[in-house]
Amino acid sequence: MDRFLFLTMDGVTRGTIYAAFALALVLIWRGTRVVNFAQGAMAVATVYIAYSVSGATGSYWLGFASALVGAALLGAVIELVVARRVHDAPPLNAIVVAIGLVLFLQAVLGMIYTNEYLAFPAPFSQNAVFAGVSPYDVFVFGVVVALLGVLTWLFTRTPLGLRMRASAFAPEVSRLLGVDVALMRTLGWVLAAVVGSLAALLVIPTELGLHPTAMDDVFVAAFTAAVVGGLDSPAGAVLGGLIVGVLLSYVGGYVRSDATPLAVLGLLVVVLLVRPGGLFAVPSARRV
Amino acid sequence: MSGMANSTDTATVAPAPPRARATTGRRGNTLLRHVLIATVVGVVVVIATYQIEPFRNYQLATIGAYLCVLPGLILLTGFTGQISLGHGALMAAGAYTVALTPDLPFLFSLLAGVLVATVLGAVIGVAAARLHGPYLAGATLAVAVSVPAVTTTFDGLFGGDAGLTFAVSPAPASLGAYFPFERWQAWITLLGAAVVMLLLANLVRSRFGRTLRAVRDDEVAASLAGIHVGRVRVLAFVLSAAGAGLGGGMFALLAQSVSPGAYGLTLSLNLMLAIVLGGLGGLRGAVWGAIVLVALQPLADWATSGLDADPALQQRLEGTLPLAIFGAALIVVMTTAPGGLDALVTRALRRLRGARRSDPAAR
Amino acid sequence: MAPLLEVENLTCGYGPVEVLRNVSLSVERGSVLAVLGANGAGKTTLLRTLSGLIRPTAGRIVFDGADVRGVAVEKLVRRGIAHVPEGRGVVAELTVDENLRLGGLWRRDRADAQAALAEVYELFEPLARRRRSVGHQLSGGERQMLSVGRALVARPSLLLLDEPSLGLAPRVTAQILALLAQRCESTGLTVLLVEQNVRSALSIADHGVVLSVGEVAMSAPAARLKDDDDLRHAYLGF
User: Fold this and answer.
1) Considering the domain boundaries, does residue C36 fall inside one?
2) Which UniProt keywords apply (chain A) (predicted)?
3) Domain span at residue C220?
4) Over chain C, what is the mean pLDDT?
5) What is the pLDDT of residue B308?
6) Which residues contact residue A260 at a Cβ distance below 8 angstroms, ignoring those fewer than 6 apart?
7) A159, A158, A188, A173: which is closest to C77 by C-alpha?
8) DSSP state letters, B275-310
9) What is the ipTM of this complex?
10) What are phi and psi of C218, to 5 degrees?
11) From residue B173, how far is each of B167, B178, B181, B282 by CA, in Å?
């Protein structure tokens, strides 16, 4: 029973991180109909920024903040220089460009930091103190809940959020109403990059370490989470993230830890075949 | 090999009426022409393998192995518009089958590898036929990253992270006592590549090729025209999987070992990159793609050794510079020249020809 | 006074296909111009060009004394052109209130934007009752009111209205057009109305232009178009 509780709590914590990363994917998908396959590589790049800044200043929090600022810049640059050019092209082009970005970013990171695993420690202890929950788990949970609160507020309560939602749903109508849709798209990328960076900052300390490909598996898990929840639904992404997190924790704990990518693959395939619009979609809402 | 795919090019640029008319006259003997070209290229290559050193033969063999996979992938992506980021996993299926059947004659274990990859491809393809764009890419990506998980989960069979090693029987004694193994490897992989290219080159020139393009260009119109879109997509996926199985088996032959690291996400992404850089418009792009994959690493090594950098930095650059160039090239190609290398070369040749033609007029 | 909108020799199209050829027309301040014509005559293309969604290949668009050709879509609404697209363009995922607020977001004068919003709720009462409903829950008539209302929140000087009668019961169309006419009367709003439904368009128009295969076939006061049977038969088919 203890083990079950431990695995559940661990799964929920990981799940919140997947949820955050899935949210980043959903943000870009809703705004531009592109799944940003480079999200993982972009996020890892920002964690390297945190690594360098923390290393130079000795402050985890300074590194944390610089990573988020770096993510915003990276998101803006990539949208303005690259993503914008494939916006009206077939989906293949956007995916290929994203793959190009993955290879490029990972290679550049390898050039600067080598392909060794670097230690990127957590700011709080990761040892469980109560009911399988560690101080770091509480931190992760708090950050993601705060993030969800901020995003919800932004999208439902502010004029900027209204503009961003309108641009995503109906770009042409939004332009006719005076909304700068191109700007909203850039902001969407910025926001997604920051959210993705946050997720990576939270997840890397629980992994083997910092590595150019460290987010590959997380990307697949988060993509699965987003598909489980329906790529269009932020709330679905959060729920999907929790489902994936808990599932992986059980598979890792009760079956074997090597098998978790297979569990993700299985879940993804089942959902895509049975409920392609996501578990919470109205059936036949959209073709995949 | 590169000459062989020439004919496919005319098929893909069919809108240009004069060329299209020119090819219809030759239509009846497409197969004969392809075999002829293959034979000529084959003879030239065989002679070449005697002239070059073993290392070059090994590189040639690697090109051959890539050429078993890439044409099928171009068929899948360029002709039906499906995106797979998971063909590295299908190659792993072929490679591991070969590694697990060391007692069979190589040809049979190779065929077994093709069979396993084909079956796996059929399973994925049936699922994939219902998916579009990013969903398919994401699902195949999940397949790609699960290769190491499969090998470690079933490490009793697949040998875990370390993988498996096996011995390949050397070249037949009848070829001579000092026949280099690399030349033998090159012969085998290039023969495999020739078979793949021949089959697919004929296929894309056939009715089926037109069906594929119809599905890519407009799915709804294709299905209204009576094409069973789902079946066509599955078939294309299965064909490309068979090619991947063959290519994987060839890679096993080259390395005489298999390990999950060699067939992970990186390989899958490299395959995607090769076909995009080579050109998705026709099978000929596969040749460029294979050459690019094999040639870029030595080129990058040469470039970094030319730099006057300290050894540590040089070592770091060696592993990463090709990928950085590849990644940047992918982005540039996709945003500025979606036809890839093949289109660039074709355009350059055409301009050259045009310049030559206009010269007399100038005089 | 010069007309609010003057279009001179406008030509445009998609690729090699010319949809509009040498179209010239003008809309007087405070008047309602009806652009009539069969399906495919280029009516919607005309509106899309006027609001900047399509770039013309030749010709001039003078609005309020300035050439607005090439001005970005999202900037034109700031100059006073509001376009209600065909098929109503309600953002189905947003609520009525959000849709309406969207129309005035660009305005600096928040208080006046708020006042404009209140006026629209007053003008189109059914919308006030459905503030919190999401776009796709609305009836056709409510959607039409919403998109017209949303355009009015911007306090435009020129309203481009594309097929407001499409898919609506005649009674509902008449109701909406009557409210609109009343609004024009009270505020001096200028309207360019594109319609296939000639009867309802001419009921509120001052002037009519008939487009036929991308060209202006005739231009006449609405009263004349209504009464001249020969013209009606020749160009409008009833």
Assistant:
1) yes
2) Amino-acid transport, Cell membrane, Membrane, Transmembrane, Transmembrane helix, Transport
3) 1-80+157-168+188-238
4) 86
5) 67
6) A248, A251, A252, B149
7) A173
8) HHHH-SSSTHHHHHHHHHHHHHHHHHHHHHHHS---
9) 0.89
10) -160, 160
11) 17, 9, 11, 39
Q: Do C105 and A178 touch (CB under 8 A)?
A: yes
pLDDT digits (tens, 9 = 90+) for C136-147: 888 888 888 898
Q: A84, exposed or middle or buried, with CB in 10 Å at 0-12, 13-18, 19+?
A: middle
Instruction: Provide the number of structural domains found in chain C.
Output: 1
Give the whole-angstrom CA distance, residue C137 versus residue C160: 25
Find tokens 């208080």 and name the residue: C111
Q: Does some domain include residue C220?
A: yes
pLDDT range class, residue A54, cuts 50, 70, 90? very high
Contact call for residues B8 and B204 (beta carbons, < 8 A): yes
The candidate with the shortest Cα–Cα distance to C53, out of C61, C64, C45, is C45
Q: Which position has the token pair 């792009």?
A: B285
Q: Which of C2, C7, C4, C3 is nearest to C60 (CA)?
A: C7
User: Do C and B count as touching (3 or more CB pairs closer than 8 A)?
Assistant: no
Q: 0.90 exceeded by the pTM?
A: no
Question: In the predicted model, is pLDDT for residue A260 greater than 90?
Answer: no
Residue A280 Cα to chain centre, angstroms: 20
Residue B17 has pLDDT above 50, yes or no: no
CA distance C194 to C166: 11
Interface test with B, best of A85, A102, A116, A258 (most B CBs within 10 A): A258
Q: Using CB atoms, which residue from A95, A100, A260 is nearest to B134?
A: A95
What CA–CA distances, in Å, run from B350 to A72, B286, B310, B344? 45, 20, 44, 10
Does residue C94 fall inside a structural domain?
no
Relative to beta strand C158-162, strand C81-84 is parallel
- From the list A26, A102, A231, A115, the residue with the least C-alpha distance to B272 is A102
What are the tens digits of pLDDT across the range B115-161? Answer: 999 999 998 888 777 777 788 888 888 888 888 888 888 877 887 77
CATH number at residue C55: 3.40.50.300
Taking contacts as CB-CB distances below 8 angstroms, the residues of chain A near C103 are 177
Which distant-in-sequence residues (6+ apart) come within 8 Å of A22 by Cβ?
A222, A223, A225, A226, A229, A237, A238, A240, A241
Model confidence over B48-82: pLDDT tens digits?
Answer: 877 787 778 888 888 988 999 999 999 988 888 88
Total residue length of chain C:
238
Residue C47 lies in a domain: yes
Is there a contact between B330 and A272 if contact means CB atoms under 8 Å apart? no
